[in-house]
Amino acid sequence: MTDKMREEFIEAFVKQFGFGRMAASSNPDAAGMLACAEWAWFASREALVIELPEDFTSVGSPNMRMLVAHHREIVGLLVQSIEAAGVKVKS
Description:
The chain is mainly alpha-helical. The protein contains 4 helices and 2 strands; from the N terminus they run αααβαβ.
């Protein structure tokens, strides 16, 4: 997980429960709650896999070849964006 993802988690946790790492460091119950929530959040991100539409092939038409190339470019950009969010893309 990236630092950005950890920050997103802490921000959501603080918004929901009103305390973060500093408060949890001095309270064993809060520390346990934070650790469990963090584990569950990361596990849910790890388990999530996006399946994109299958690629298609052209039948020879120049317009169709251009459409296929454009489709592949867009799918590549989608994969980059999804993976940057910490989510896997099924290959």
